Amino acid sequence: MSRPPAITATLSRVAIEPYLALIRAPFLLFSIIVISVPAAVAVEAGTFDPANTVFAFGSVFFAHIAVNVLNIASDYRTGLDEQTEETAYSGGSDVLTEGSLSYRRAVVLGLLSIVVSALFVVPLLLEYGRIILLFYGVGFTLVVGYTDLFARVGLGETACGLGLTLLPTVAVGYIQAGTIPDTIVALAVPMFLVGFNLLLLNEFPDVEADRENGRVNIPIVFGRQAAGYLYALLVGVIVVSLLYPIATGLLPPTVAVGVAPVALLVPVFREVLSNGSPDITEAALGNHILWTQTTIAAFAVGLLLATVL
Question: Which of 9, 96, 174, 204 could form a disulfide with 280 if both were Cys (CB 3.0 to 4.6 A apart)?
Answer without folding.
Answer: 204
